[in-house]
Queue: 2 jobs
Job 1
Amino acid sequence: MAVDYADLAKTIAALTEGETDEVALMATLACEIHHSDARFDWTGFYRVTTPRVLKIGPYQGGHGCLVIPFGKGVCGTAAETGEVQIVEDVEAFPGHIACAASTRSEIVLPVQGASGQVIGVLDIDSNQPAAFTAADGEALGAILRDVFGQGGHRR
Ligand code: SME
């Protein structure tokens, strides 16, 4: 099953209209994205709360580990590089942090705030191997830019 990203983006834009609180926005996105596709078994945000440290934010799914340093695991790599990470096989990713043994693949996108700085990452994990493509990265990145970024629909 593929996500109808146009529909998802429209729903998210409507639900978040006028809201600027980052945690409220992250909670809404985690819920809406998670339930949009059966491939998504864990969907959530890690936030930059102190320099070079990611702390767990709003999520859907099982327990997520609380703290990830920049540069560690898939999330820490996305935060460090500012680039989307698509991992087809988590067991082949050096330093992958296994929060759930069922996770087989994942996508992590950096989240940039209104002034262009990395404010966190969006992590989606799947129990299916190679569940994510560059098209998922592009569509999800557009949603994140619209909600959190410069020139987003509420700024
Ligand atoms: N898999 C992630 C860790 C976060 S949890 O799976 C929720 C990583 O290696 O960054």
Note: The mean pLDDT is 95.
Job 2
Amino acid sequence: LADRQILRWLKEPFSPWHMDEMWLVIAATNRREVNRQVFEEATRRRLFCNVVDDPELSSFVMPSIVDRSPLLVAISSAGQAPVLARLLREQLEALLPHHLGKLAEFAGRWRERVKARLPASARRGFWERLLGADRLGQALERCDDAAATRLAEQLLDEQASARRGEVVLVGAGPGDPGLLTLHALRHLQQADVVIYDRLVSKEVLALVRRDAHQLFVGKERSHHSVPQDEINQRLVEEARQGHKVVRLKGGDPFIFGRGGEELEALIGSGIGFQVIPGITAASGCSAYAGIPLTHRDHAQSVRFVSIHGKEGAIELNWRALCEPKQTLVFYMGLSLCPLISEQLQHAGMPANMPVALIERGTTPAQRVISGTLEQLPSLAEGVASPALIMVGSVVTLGQKLAWFGHSSPPINPAAAS
Ligand code: SAH
């Protein structure tokens, strides 16, 4: 390099003037004393300095990089674990396709055109569609610039003429953010507006795109809630403004979530929608309480029950709920435990049928309280909402299978001895 005059080689001991007019300093001598002098002089001059393999004498470190220029991923362990950084780099190398650089470059060439053609609110949608399109990656990989350009033009035309918002009804699961689906996560990160209610945990909300507008529509069955008509109206308005609206609901949107009613309003207004299922409270609580919903020795079927009908009327066939070999799961039943206990016994269910109340299932605050049908009203005292009521002999399995919140696996006394 020196011969080709790409770098200047001064064969002489270090002297401070070497740093005159420099931006950055790297010291790689094999004498720590000299390295220290270099570091101190650089610090005095407020120049960033890296002493090779000596994080203590460095004001910057050089990360491992995955180079897909112009896209660059840097991994640094701040000098603590270079090997770990390297291992991670190897994994990312394998993970990130080689055409990413071309993709970034292609996007760069289109930026100005997209800006000129689309209003700010429509651009992100365009980029997400374009950069997420497998066809684009494939075209760039085989250096088919014409095909890539055609695709970009087509999507740009579509976006410019369509400009229609949509609503995605997303199930947020029962609380633990790890129970979101990949689709749910993707939509949360692409949303312009997120409309959510009480059951959605703050850990899930933390995954929403930071610039998205978040709108709380309140508690169910309380005076502070936004009436359903207004929610429907709001969904329509936001979508009409071209926004990508995520309607986020606890559990699964189609299980006691009024998801169906909201979609009917959208259809009436000609707005497009998608539905992303979520883990319903019964599944989440069942798993995290170690109480299987079905089990060949206990239950061949399971019923999800809400006591509230549309007009608030109680219109249940209690006798059918007492059929043998089934598990009952009551949603929104906490304040109705006396009624549930009484009606089921009245319809013929034994007073000693096992029951469990699961409070704030799947969250770190989960509590499982079990007893018998007869005891249900007193068990419910002191239990907070949201809570689920499970009725059936499967409940007894919870004693053996409970794992969540336990530091070690359940012990089988027979196997342990
Ligand atoms: N769509 C939701 C249910 C909405 S109804 C779903 O699929 O789960 C609201 C009821 O769900 C609450 O009254 C409670 O009975 C139940 N629920 C929701 N989240 C819960 C949780 N984390 N733990 C226990 N019960 C829960």
Note: The mean pLDDT is 90.
